[in-house]
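1st attempt posting a full record on here, be nice pls
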Amino acid sequence: MNSALRQRLGNVTELRQPGFGKQLSPQRFYLLEKSLDRYEYFKKSGAPDIILCAEKALIARQLMFVSNLSTELTK
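the predicted structure (as tokens):
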């Protein structure tokens, strides 16, 4: 149990390292752009609602991450 907790805490400290967010931002924006493109394609092609909802959830998650990251970078 201790090793699992240390591993989780280690992941948190990686995000707080200087420069880490700057490297991650372009990747996240790229993924967000791809998700938006995929959502648009699914919507045009008449995909089932469950797929559209899943893609919306991905987009919301990525937006939340980018928002939190920008907040961390401005501190």
